[in-house]
Amino acid sequence: MSPYLYISDINKQMLSVGIKLFSAGQVQDYGSQMAAATLVLLPIILVFLFCQRFFIESAAIPDHFMTYASLFAFEQNFKAELFK
User: Fold this and answer.
1) Of 3, 4, 6, 54, which one's alpha carbon is 20 to 30 angstroms from that of 15?
2) DSSP 66
């Protein structure tokens, strides 16, 4: 509950605080909370699915083979795929 302490303006609160506002006193509206949580996580999941191949490629390269030239090539491939 620390976001309540640090940010007093309701328009600047974090999304988790907004999801918590779906509960009214002792009554919990779990359906609305789950729908809001899904909407909040959707962009993160889409970014992961789009970049999953790059995560796997970077995890498969051993550290001692990661030279500056290979990092540069990886960056160029990532930019080429990103701006197709």
Assistant:
1) 54
2) -
